[in-house]
Structures are given as C-alpha cells and as structure tokens.
C-alpha cells in the first residue's frame, strides 16, 4: 500500500460533467514525518489535498439529458470519466478511494421521477462496474442545493488562501482571518462568509456549523452564512433583461440594446443573426447593439430586485435575508463568472492583475462602444488569447454591467479605486499596476478580488468537498466529533440535518439520541420500508407459531400489564381487548361475545338456584346441587362481564354466583365481587329496563327464568 489516499469527485453540471482526482498523505505518514523532524507544525493543519492540471476531464453533455433514458447514463456518459480516474489512481488504492457524483443546476430542473431514475442508475453503474469505495449512495450520489455548493466553495477558497492553516498571516482585524466567497454561474449566484462577532451572535440561527479535523486529530469549527440567489446567474439575468427590453419596445422589430457592441444583431436568445434569419425578414423582433455602457448599467440595475419587501431584515437582493457585511473584516474572492468576466478579455487572464472598480469600468466602457466588425477582427488575430471567441466578446458587455451592479449596488462591495483615482487624476501612476504590485503582500485584503487559481490549483467547490472528506479521515483526538456541516445549534449535539463528510461511524452515533438517528435525513427516507419489513416479519412469526404458543405468549404479555397467568379472563381486560382474545385464545375455549338486542321477560329463565348452604351440603330434598359449570356460560368466570349494573347486586364474598340473598325474593343475582371490584369489566348486556321496556321490575329471584344471553342448555334433573 502507498503513502497517499485518493478521492474522485464528479461535478455534474448542466452543460457537462467534469471529474477531478485528488490525493493527500495518510495521517500516519504525516505523523511519522513530524516525528522525524521533531516538529508538530504539520499536525496543526488540515490534510494537504493536492491535484494536478491533467487530473481532470470533462464530458458533454450533462447527465440531466439522460432523464428519459437513465439506463444509458453509465455506458454513454460515466464510463469515460471513470476510466480516466482509474488511470490516475493506483490499482491497489482503488478499493479505498471514494467517488462522489454531485449534481447541480441541470438535475434540479428534472421531474422527480426522472431525477431519481438517473441517480439510481449512476449508483448502480458505479457499484457494478468499478471497485471505487461507494458504501452509501445517498451520501455519494446526490443533487446538492446551491447553499451546499457555496459552502464547499468557501472551504476551497480559504483552504488555498491560507485562512485555515495560517490565520496569523491573514488577520483582517477583530480576530477575523477567513475570506468571503462569491460564485456566479449561469442560473444562480452564491455568497458565503463568516460574519463579524456582533452579526454572528445576532443571526446565530441563520448560520451553518462547519466542523473540520486537523491531521493531529483536533476539531476546528466555523460558523458560516450561505445563501443562493436563483435567477441571478449571468444567463438567467440576461434572459430577464431581454424580457424587460421587449416590454419597453412592444411594437418594434428592431429593439435597441445598449449592452451590445455597436452594430451587432442578435436574436432574443442571444445568437448572432445571419442574412437568412427570420428576424431580419421582419417576422420576429431582434436586438440591435448601440454600445452605450452607461445606459446598460441603468437598465440592468432593476434586475437586482432591491425593491422586493424584506420580511427578515437585513436583506441584499430579492428580499432574501443576509446578515450585514462588515467590509473591514469581510474580504471576498470571486470565482467563475466573476473571474472570467473581469479577466478573460480585459486582463488577458494575467493572474496577478487585481480588480478595481475605476479601471475596470473604464476598460468595459471603451470596449463596448467599439464597432462589432472591428472587434471580430481582433478576435481573429487572438488579441485576447486563444480561448476568447466571438461568443465571449458578444456577451461580455452585459455580463460586465451585471457583475458591477451585483458587486457594488447589490452586495455593497466598496468601489475601490474610485476615490484614489480622483485624487491622483493628474498623476501618471497606473492604479491597476499599483494594486497588483501589493496584492500578494497584502493577502487579498481588498474588499474584492477575482481569482481562478491559487498556486496553480483551481478554486473549485469540488476541492472544498474533498478537503472536508480528507479531514474526516484523520483519526480523532477529542472524542470523535463528526466532521461535516449542519444547522448551528448550541452544544455538541448533532443537528438532525447534519451532513456527514463520510459514512456515519459508531463514535458519532453514540452521541446522538435514538430519536435523532431515526429521524435524521438518511433514516427518515428509509423509515417506511423499515416499518413495512417489521410488520411482515411480525406477521410471519405469528403464522409460524401454533395456537398454543400464541396463547402462551399472550398470557405472558398480560402478565406484564398486571394480570397473572391463569386469572379468569373476565376479571381483567388488557388494551388488546376482543382482538387479543380472538387471536391468542385456545380453540377449545368458548367465546362469550353474544350481545342482546331485544327480548321478552317471559323468555328469561334461570337455572335452579340453591343457597350457599345447599351447595356446601351437596343436596336439597334429594336433588343433587347443580355444579358451577352446569349452565351454559353463566357458571364460568366470564359471566361477570356479561351482567348489567342492575343485575349485579353485591353479596358477601364466599357466596355462589347464583346465590339468592338471605331474606327471600327480591334480592336478585349475587356476584362474587362488589361494585368496587368491577374495574376493568366490559359490560356486554343490556340493563333489565332495556330487556323489558315499559314493564315493572323483573322478578330477578325467580328460579324458572333463563337469560337469553345464554345458549339454551338442556339438562335433565331427575
């Protein structure tokens, strides 16, 4: 086995999927080197996660295009990416190498059933056709929300810039040493930052708890605010902008667009028009570039939706709550469109050229006022490099105006360079060169800087994901607090929405209550299946057991509720009631479920009744005393539960069930329990008034009446 661990992350975006492979030293290797050098510095930092420029590969189109043919996503899309990763990871490390596929915007737009089908097929393919470590598909294969994407980006930026491992070199003031993170894609934009102490306390419930682990095993925690603005990505913003233009010129076939270079003709979808296009024949409205960047800025400003009511202040955009940003300590880095729009054309991708508002706005204004034909010639001569094509320069004016409005009027980033430029207007000093010269020494301490790579490593949210995972693989030294993120709750108890960086280990589960584990996100999705399985298992056990075993089990169950096995069943009822007696009683036991609906008093007959003395003497007038069980039903203990309160007159203990009260005729039936001992009895008969509505009191003591509750019992008393 080698000295390194590996990990692979597939970023499944809307336009394509890109696989990244990362490596880091195993914890024991780092500790051994620390012992050799006699220094523990390397133990006080996060794992050193590395990648190389040629350790990534992209495949078009995105996996969202397999919504209607999910079974093809493996062989037609994933195979090429997986084979590429297998060429990098050593063969003897593949089984210990985790692979993640994390999908973003494109997959969020699919119907639920299609999205689930694609993810299931991704999981099945990776498990059946590779030996990568994939123990939990719910953790490794998923569609992540914009907030998670933003948090991973925040981790990557601070990891590369040194905000985690070298806080003393990144002191921003007030004990703050992490950077804010801005990301803008095609559909959405994200922001992530750690508020200052005052705002963190005021908005604690809005923050995410992030826990990492250093090589030495020490856990470190951060409280981060993350949010995403759907529809505020560059492409969606452009779509909304075009809609507003068409509304402003409802009857025009040629709609003037100040965010396009002079003379450029494009369709509503943004494609350059050709001579045979239907738009040029007057059939559809189209856009004509006027190159007025100042007017472009004014028209894109309303897209920020600053006028949307803020229900939970403070808010920045679209009425979404965001804690106040302290730009004295919150210094931001921007990636994706923030980098491409500020550097691909206007700085020729020179990585050390810093952003400042004054210089950038002047460059964009000059560029966008040019004639489109002249710009096309410069593209052909590769004036802005090989990667800049006509589509890039066609879109850059709108994107630049949107970026400036987002940064300064939306998020509130100070316009660095504006005031200084006014003061030095007569000076020949180039502000951009001045900022560039000091950018690295200052540790990106300006309010905003656009970045693409730091020390040759791309600032990608996939790196943040792998840093989180790699830190979870370091042996813990503080009781095994879980590595991951979730709601910011006080104490050490894990929130229900906690997202583990790797599989849940026992030391973590021991810190959770059983109900937390059951209702956590992973368990809650499995709960219905678990319940159904348990019900089937219980039914199977019930059917396998014979009636005798069921009866024995039932008697034991009753004992738990206070009834001793063998106690007459009429004396006490459990909550199982009739259903329990039906399911667990012996087949030979009689059932006493007859219910009286109506009867005539003349039909009521009682068996011969004798006194207690007669019963004990054994006979009366030569006739044998009836035994307790001679009459059907009544002579059993179950008779007690079938008597109405009017019939259930108390008698001294020791008398028989059918003893006549001393003193003669009107005493009624004497029960073996007093009214105060009837707890738990279930009355199953009607009262005597119900038996003979409108009649006088029945002759309870008559020995010639039999209850209609009983099955007629024919006996011969010779």
TrEMBL record:
<dbReference type="GO" id="GO:0005524">
    <property type="term" value="F:ATP binding"/>
</dbReference>
<feature type="region of interest" description="Disordered">
    <location>
        <begin position="31"/>
        <end position="51"/>
    </location>
</feature>
<feature type="transmembrane region" description="Helical">
    <location>
        <begin position="527"/>
        <end position="545"/>
    </location>
</feature>
<dbReference type="GO" id="GO:0006256">
    <property type="term" value="P:UDP catabolic process"/>
</dbReference>
<dbReference type="GO" id="GO:0016020">
    <property type="term" value="C:membrane"/>
</dbReference>
<feature type="region of interest" description="Disordered">
    <location>
        <begin position="610"/>
        <end position="652"/>
    </location>
</feature>
<dbReference type="GO" id="GO:0005794">
    <property type="term" value="C:Golgi apparatus"/>
</dbReference>
<dbReference type="GO" id="GO:0046036">
    <property type="term" value="P:CTP metabolic process"/>
</dbReference>
<dbReference type="InterPro" id="IPR000407">
    <property type="entry name" value="GDA1_CD39_NTPase"/>
</dbReference>
<keyword id="KW-0378">Hydrolase</keyword>
<comment type="similarity">
    <text>Belongs to the GDA1/CD39 NTPase family.</text>
</comment>
<protein>
    <recommendedName>
        <fullName>Golgi apyrase</fullName>
    </recommendedName>
</protein>
<dbReference type="GO" id="GO:0017111">
    <property type="term" value="F:ribonucleoside triphosphate phosphatase activity"/>
</dbReference>
<feature type="binding site">
    <location>
        <begin position="186"/>
        <end position="190"/>
    </location>
    <ligand>
        <name>ATP</name>
    </ligand>
</feature>
<keyword id="KW-0547">Nucleotide-binding</keyword>
<keyword id="KW-1133">Transmembrane helix</keyword>
<dbReference type="GO" id="GO:0004382">
    <property type="term" value="F:GDP phosphatase activity"/>
</dbReference>
<feature type="compositionally biased region" description="Basic and acidic residues">
    <location>
        <begin position="31"/>
        <end position="47"/>
    </location>
</feature>
<dbReference type="GO" id="GO:0045134">
    <property type="term" value="F:UDP phosphatase activity"/>
</dbReference>
<dbReference type="Pfam" id="PF01150">
    <property type="entry name" value="GDA1_CD39"/>
</dbReference>
<feature type="active site" description="Proton acceptor">
    <location>
        <position position="149"/>
    </location>
</feature>
<keyword id="KW-0472">Membrane</keyword>
<keyword id="KW-0812">Transmembrane</keyword>
<keyword id="KW-0067">ATP-binding</keyword>
<feature type="region of interest" description="Disordered">
    <location>
        <begin position="684"/>
        <end position="718"/>
    </location>
</feature>
């Amino acid at each position: 086995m080698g000295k390194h661990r590996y990990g692979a992350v597939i970023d499944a975006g809307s336009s394509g999927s890109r696989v990244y492979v990362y490596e880091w030293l195993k914890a024991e290797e780092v500790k051994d080197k620390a012992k050799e050098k006699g220094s523990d510095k390397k133990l006080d930092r996060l794992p050193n996660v590395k990648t190389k420029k040629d350790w990534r590969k992209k495949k078009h189109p995105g996996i969202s295009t397999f919504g209607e043919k999910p079974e093809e996503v493996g062989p037609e899309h994933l195979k090429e990416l997986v084979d590429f990763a297998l060429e990098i990871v050593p063969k003897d490390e593949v089984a210990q190498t985790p692979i993640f596929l994390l999908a973003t915007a494109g997959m969020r737009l699919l119907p639920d059933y299609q999205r689930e089908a694609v993810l299931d097929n991704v999981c099945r393919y990776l498990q059946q056709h590779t030996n990568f470590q994939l123990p939990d598909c719910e953790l490794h294969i998923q569609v992540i929300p914009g907030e998670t994407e933003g948090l991973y980006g925040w981790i990557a930026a601070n990891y590369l810039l040194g905000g985690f491992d070298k806080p003393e070199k990144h002191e921003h003031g007030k004990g703050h040493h992490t950077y804010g993170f801005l990301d803008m894609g095609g559909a959405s934009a994200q922001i992530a930052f750690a508020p200052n102490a005052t705002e963190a306390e005021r908005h604690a419930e809005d923050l995410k708890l992030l826990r990492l682990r250093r090589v030495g095993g020490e856990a470190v925690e951060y409280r981060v605010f993350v949010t995403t603005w759907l529809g505020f990505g560059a492409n969606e913003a452009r779509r909304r902008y075009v809609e507003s233009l068409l509304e402003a010129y409802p009857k025009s076939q040629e709609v003037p667009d100040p965010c396009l270079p002079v003379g450029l003709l494009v369709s509503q979808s943004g494609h350059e028009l050709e001579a045979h296009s239907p738009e040029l024949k007057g059939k559809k409205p189209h856009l004509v570039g006027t190159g007025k960047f100042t007017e472009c800025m004014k028209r894109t400003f309303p897209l920020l939706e600053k006028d949307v009511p803020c229900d939970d202040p403070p808010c920045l955009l679209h009425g979404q709550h965001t804690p106040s940003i302290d730009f004295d300590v919150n210094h931001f880095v921007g990636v994706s469109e923030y980098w491409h729009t500020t550097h691909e054309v206007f700085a020729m991708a020179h990585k050390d050229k810093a952003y400042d508002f004054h210089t950038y706005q002047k460059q964009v204004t000059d560029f966008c006022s040019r004639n489109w034909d002249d710009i096309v010639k410069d593209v052909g001569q590769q004036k802005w490099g090989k990667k800049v094509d006509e589509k890039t320069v066609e879109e850059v004016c709108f994107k630049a105006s949107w970026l400036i409005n987002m940064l300064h009027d939306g998020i509130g980033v100070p316009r660095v360079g504006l005031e200084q430029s006014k003061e030095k207007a007569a000076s020949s000093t180039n502000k951009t060169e001045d900022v560039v010269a000091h950018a690295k020494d200052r540790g990106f301490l300006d309010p905003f800087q656009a970045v693409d790579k730091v020390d040759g490593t791309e600032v990608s949210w996939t790196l943040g994901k792998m840093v989180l995972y790699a830190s979870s693989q370091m042996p813990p030294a503080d009781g095994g607090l879980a590595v991951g993120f979730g709601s910011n709750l006080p104490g050490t108890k894990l929130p229900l929405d906690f997202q583990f960086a790797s599989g849940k280990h026992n030391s973590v589960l021991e810190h959770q209550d059983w109900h937390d584990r059951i209702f956590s996100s992973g368990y809650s999705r499995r709960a219905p299946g678990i319940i159904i399985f348990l019900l089937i298992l219980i039914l199977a056990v019930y059917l396998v057991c014979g009636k005798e075993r069921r009866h024995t089990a039932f008697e034991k169950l009753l004992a738990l509720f206070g009834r001793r096995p063998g106690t007459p069943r009429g004396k006490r009822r459990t909550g199982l009631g009739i259903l329990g007696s039906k399911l667990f009683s012996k087949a030979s036991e009689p059932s006493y479920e007859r219910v009286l609906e109506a009867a005539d008093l003349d039909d009521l007959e009682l068996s011969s009744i004798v006194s207690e003395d007669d019963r004990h003497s054994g006979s009366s007038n030569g006739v044998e005393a009836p035994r307790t069980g001679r009459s059907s039903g009544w002579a059993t203990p179950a008779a007690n539960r079938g008597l109405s309160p009017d019939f259930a007159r108390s008698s001294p203990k020791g008398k028989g069930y059918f003893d006549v009260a001393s003193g003669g005729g009107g005493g009624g039936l004497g029960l073996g329990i007093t009214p105060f001992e009837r707890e738990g009895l279930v009355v199953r008969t009607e009262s005597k008034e119900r038996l003979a509505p409108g009649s006088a009191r029945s002759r309870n003591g008559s020995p010639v009446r039999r209850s209609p509750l009983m099955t007629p019992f024919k006996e011969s008393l010779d």
